[in-house]
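Here is an idea for our session: we take a single protein and study its fold together. To get us started, please write out a protein record for me. Once you have written the record down, we can walk along the chain together.
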Amino acid sequence: MALPVEEWRLCAARRWAALEPALRERLAVASLQDTLLLGCGLLRPEAEAAVLRRLCRRAPAGKEPAAACFYREEGNRRFGRRQYDAAVRLYSQAASHELPGSPEVSVCFANRSAALFHLGHFEVCLEDIARAESHGYPDRLLPKVLLRKAECLLCLGRLQDAANALSAVENKIAMDGTMTNPAHQTLLKKLSQLKIKIHEKESCPQPAREACGEIQRDSEFWEENDSISGASSSLGLNFDMERGRHLVARQDIQPGQNLLKEEAFVSVLCPGEGLLLQDSSETPWDTRVTNADLYCHRCLRQLLASVPCRGCSYAKYCSQNCADVAWERYHRTECSLGALLLTLGVFCHVALRTVLLAGFAEVSRLVEWSHDGDKDLRNHEARCKYPSEAPDVRTGTRGIPGCNENGQYQSSYQAVFNLLPHAEKHSPEHKFLCMLSVVAVCKQLQEAGLEGAVFNRESSEKWSKPETCEKTSGDLSPELKIMAEAMLRHVLQLQCNAQAITVMQELGSGDGAVVNKKPVRLATAFFPVLSLLNHSCCPNISVSFSGTAATVRASQPIPSGQEIFHCYEDMLCCSNEACAVSVSRESLSRRLQDLQQQIKKALELLKDRKADQAIKLLLKCQMDAGNFLSPEHLLMGEMEDHLAQVYATLGKWQEAARHLEKSIEIVEVHHGPSSVEIGHELFKLAQILFNGFAVSEALSTIQRAEEILSVHCGPRSTQIQELQEMKTCLLELPRSILQRT
């Protein structure tokens, strides 16, 4: 959720309406600096701040021992049912609520290692065993865990390490004395079996594997741009009054050619919708799994066995290194603000993390620079329109905002700061909401004594609060006002410059014959160089993500001198220009929401194995949608896609292919015949044709999907590999079958 929760938005709207008209007029035209000066005292402790405290209780992010106990017991229950994936998630949630270094958290890691072992994730299982030991796993339970360690090492072919682990188990058993109860006898029996297995493997060594050339990465020639960090030398940075800063092709560019590789300056994970792990909805704790449980909060890698934050239950990481780096750079400040940041939305969170990563010295330098001249951000935007009139240290010798003194545009805080906030284009009410939210964050920082962390000082104890902060009506310190002004700027910038980091996620259980995937917003980020690309409904590039890194590839031939365009709008609108019927936006929005709810019910019926009912409901949705949407509306395509999914679950491959082909026609109208969206749709069609033994159609579809996806995702992507496996399988069929098809 980019913006704050609805209750806070309504609270801010009421506060705005209650202001004196003269104050509203001043705020409407005020610069960002003056907005903060006028608005710092408008967050009343007994009113707006109290509302925020109440809302924060709905999004608890602290550690709860009772929650840890519940999740651990629920994990044990799922483990007993052999539902190991769910058990791993529940043990992870339990660990996030336990105190670091406690025996309880060590039990969570040990239990999770058992589930991981059954799933065949032996390397990760070993990591969890090491975590359990380092957190003080109870001595009496250690032999069982050490045996699991030996089994993992044996499965990984690390025979000497496995033998050493077994020796450690034997020594442990010998130190503990006689073992007579049934559980101990089971351990001894397993120990003997493992020793036999190790001996057998040592006697029959596995042949050495030949080096596989397939794992070599693409060695595409890459000549980096001398003035734009991360960009290809085939791009140039231009500026004019109409388009502002933009990138153009310096030379002819071919489809699939890499144009830009950029690491996000800052990114914040979006929790997203939750997937329920619990059988019953009547539980004392939330058992939904969201993106916050599935991806590392720093590098955005997919999580299998998360490392919890030391201070809160929300932040989770892929490794201890990621957890430590995040803590040092920003999370020690954010940690206690978790509930507040979840309430105020991702944009506010991105703004805070941006200034924390930049550091107070750099933020202060740029904020003070923006106060020069007329002390009005509109003056800065005028300088952006006429850059040649204002070359200086910040805009650089080339005169283009964001470039350094050497005329280089780098992926830096200076470049982020120079992204336009378009303050004059936001409604006064929206700017007021953003200001009030930013002030709430900064006041919480001040009240929690976190200024030392914010200003990069060694400890908050060395920061002495100004006496005026305690005596005045909740005023902010001068330093926090600077940080608040920068944060307000970034929140407004994000309306136009936020980049969604997306990932392809499977829909449903993933155990069907056809894997149905869709792009899901994983995080919101600032990419300073990527933000140079202007929008077009007919883009000539494609953007893909790996963790926090973006890769831009040409999606079509781009002649020298042509501008590089990126499509970043996601809107539902009627695509029939000849339609003369007009309805209000509110009415259309309501009808679309009702339709989407019905589609959601149909998918739930499919999940409950009620395919016939799902088909009937989807067909009814199609009829209803036909009354107010054009045949080429994207939602019409989605319904065809869902019908294809239902028929595929029934094994009716021809029907599934027919509906998916209709969906592809609609997607092609909106995104073009060579778009990445068409590539994903063709991938699904290839699976359906493959399963239906439509060999010739499947082979031609595979070829087209390969051509498109290799351009957008690279020749080594997972989907390309799956397409090649399908093609190999089809070509190996007996000639008699190939001739019949």
Q: What stands out?
A: The mean pLDDT is 82. Residues 585-607 form the longest helix (23 residues). The radius of gyration is 29 Å.
